[in-house]
Task: inverse folding
């Protein structure tokens, strides 16, 4: 974990940002979760250590970390949510609509789609599949 945290400290510095204890704690939180978190969930999880941390400060830091590719985001149930960015290889996600856990999908259908879309050039994409994970499905 120390090696990984150094990588994120360096990323903050490389982008001209201060390495603060709060930012590093937020990054640690996301590293410990395998799911998307809302700003409210982040605030609740950091409350014990930082009871005065405002929602605005959390939201601002979430977007700052997203801009430098530490976090990625998606919209779940009409709310922006964030998770640690997966930048080591190209893949997509299955996201459980109940618990928010994510699973990696290694197959990418973009080449098939490119072949079906005559005359266009796909320059980027993001594929997310939603449903219930095994655990949540068995409870439903």
Result:
């Amino acid at each position: 974990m120390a090696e990984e945290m150094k990588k994120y400290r360096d990323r903050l510095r490389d982008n001209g940002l201060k390495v603060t204890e709060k930012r590093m704690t937020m990054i640690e939180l996301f590293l410990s979760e395998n799911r998307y978190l809302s700003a409210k969930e982040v605030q609740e999880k950091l409350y014990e250590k930082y009871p005065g941390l405002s929602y605005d400060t959390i939201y601002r830091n979430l977007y700052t970390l997203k801009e430098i590719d530490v976090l990625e985001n998606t919209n779940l149930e009409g709310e922006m949510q964030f998770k640690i960015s997966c930048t080591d290889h190209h893949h997509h996600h299955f996201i459980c609509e109940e618990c928010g856990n994510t699973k990696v999908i290694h197959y990418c259908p973009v080449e098939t789609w490119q072949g079906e879309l005559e005359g266009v050039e796909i320059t980027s994409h993001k594929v997310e599949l939603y449903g219930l994970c095994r655990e949540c499905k068995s409870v439903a």
Q: What stands out?
A: The mean pLDDT is 89. The beta strands are 37-38, 71-76, 79-84, 92-96, 102-105, 128-131.
